[in-house]
Design goal:
single chain; mainly alpha
């Protein structure tokens, strides 16, 4: 592996550009995925499986730590979604609500 020199302005600039380009690519990837309805449904299930809307409290400290960690993962994903497309999470919630209403209307 090549050694980098933080005192070399050219290497620092190159590393900063590479990091910026990688972040831009991640954002473009997520923007593309957010256009796919199946991916939006998956994200909804994944986020709510992390029990984001519930209290993380549990009398067992290990379980509570696990719950907090799960919720933190969901918050981080929500942040990434917001950075990629500020309206995407609203779209995900709207689509889920529409699906729930459709299912309710079909019940006897």
């Amino acid at each position: 592996m090549r050694q980098r020199n933080a005192s070399d302005p050219a290497q620092v600039k190159k590393a900063e550009r590479a990091a910026r380009e990688a972040e831009e690519q991640r954002s473009l990837d997520l923007k593309g995925l957010l256009q796919i309805p199946e991916f939006r449904r998956y994200l909804y299930r994944w986020i709510w499986q992390k029990q984001l809307a519930l209290s993380p409290f549990n009398s067992n400290g290990s379980t509570m730590s696990l719950n907090v960690g799960r919720q933190d993962m969901a918050r981080e994903m929500l942040h990434e979604i917001r950075l990629a497309d500020v309206t995407a999470f609203a779209t995900i919630l709207r689509e889920q609500a529409e699906e729930e209403l459709r299912v309710q209307s079909e019940e006897p």
